[in-house]
Amino acid sequence: MELIPKETILSWDRFYRGNFINSLSGYKSVSLIATVDKKGNPNLAIFSNLVHLGADPALIAFVNRPREAAPHTLQNIEATGLYTINHIHPDMVLRAHQTSAKYSTDVNEFEAAALKPEYVEGFSVPFVKESRCSYAMKLIEVIPIKHNNTFLVIGELQQVRLDTTIIRSDGFLQLDKIETVASLGIDAYYKPQPLARYSYAKPGTIATNLDEFTV
Amino acid sequence: MELIPKETILSWDRFYRGNFINSLSGYKSVSLIATVDKKGNPNLAIFSNLVHLGADPALIAFVNRPREAAPHTLQNIEATGLYTINHIHPDMVLRAHQTSAKYSTDVNEFEAAALKPEYVEGFSVPFVKESRCSYAMKLIEVIPIKHNNTFLVIGELQQVRLDTTIIRSDGFLQLDKIETVASLGIDAYYKPQPLARYSYAKPGTIATNLDEFTV
Questions:
Q1: Distance, in angstroms, between B164 CA and closest chain A CA?
Q2: Which residues fall within 8 angstroms of residue B33, CB to CB, at 6 or more apart?
Q3: Which B-chain residues 138-157 have CB contacts (< 8 A) with chain A?
Q4: Which ipTM score applies to this complex?
Q5: How would you write the pLDDT of chain B (215 residues) with one tens digit per residue?
Q6: Which class is domain B23-190?
Q7: With an 8 Å Cβ cutoff, is B213 touching chain A?
Q8: What is the pTM of this model?
Q9: CATH class, A12-190 region
């Protein structure tokens, strides 16, 4: 084990440091966020910094980079209050990565990345048809992070679109069955394999591995 | 594909709904957060909602549940301004899970979970000795999330303690080499396997899989 002090990290060039810091916090739940502008024109972009805030109410948040770096998704969400978040599986991961390219406002990233929108009744923003697990969100709050001009975008769950065979008897979603990928750093994608599912931990007893947790 | 409306999700019992919503947002970078109180007594707890905020300055945040549900870590961080975040690998995942038990304030979770503290010069909070990748943080801001009484705890990177053989030539940390685990939902742990690492995406060209990305 080696110790790397802050001064060393600050001395690195920005690309090397960016790769290092981005991977340090670990695996991320990378997903495609779809939005539409006021005229209904769709936008699609890949986001990796999603975070579960709570189940009751069902709140999920994501980090949006500074406006000048990533303007379209946030602008559309502020305009309409709605968006969808779509899991990615290996067959679509290269196309999902392609949405990180800096397309101009008039480009429909669904078309540019060869992914299909899927509209459902009563919700103006499409899901990504290829995705095997998607959810529709309503904006609750945009919290500006003043230290680096990023934003925490908090939404409330509206509906879920998924292959229901992955729902276990206790509500757990066994995402490996639909091959949902995770990301690491800026550009790496991983396929998680099940390791263990443990019982509720209590002082003085050792949790046990729940049965039936198999690939 | 099935659509599950919000009304159905709200009708579920809270344990089923909790498992469902917690897994919906995807894989999480579960880690052990170590703190000390003002007297130097250590505390250790598992957290799964970590998020990368930016590389310059190097900011990483985590979600702390409401104070009544998870008081000790946040209280210690507010008292000392310092904490460490420690990756988990398969040999220590059951012990790490055990730190989620509700121990009273006077219990040292390092001892309760059979994990060892490792102190380094100039930093009052220990790392987890068993961890193969850890980082020391300084508190920057605690942002209350008013909608469910959780908190976004933002810290700035101070130093990193890791097995440097996982650092790739461009700064990327190949975490599968040290078997860092990811979590899913409330109680599941996964081992991610490398899938692809893609070049920077640009409009009009297709990204390529970077070479050398192997297990």
A1: 7
A2: B44, B45, B46, B47, B62, B73, B83, B84, B85, B86
A3: 140-141, 143, 145, 147-148, 150, 152, 154, 157
A4: 0.96
A5: 999 999 999 999 999 999 999 999 999 999 999 999 999 999 999 999 999 999 999 999 999 999 988 889 999 999 999 999 999 999 999 999 999 999 998 899 999 999 999 999 999 999 999 999 999 999 999 999 999 999 999 999 999 999 999 999 999 999 999 999 999 999 999 999 999 999 989 998 888 888 656 54
A6: mainly beta
A7: yes
A8: 0.96
A9: mainly beta
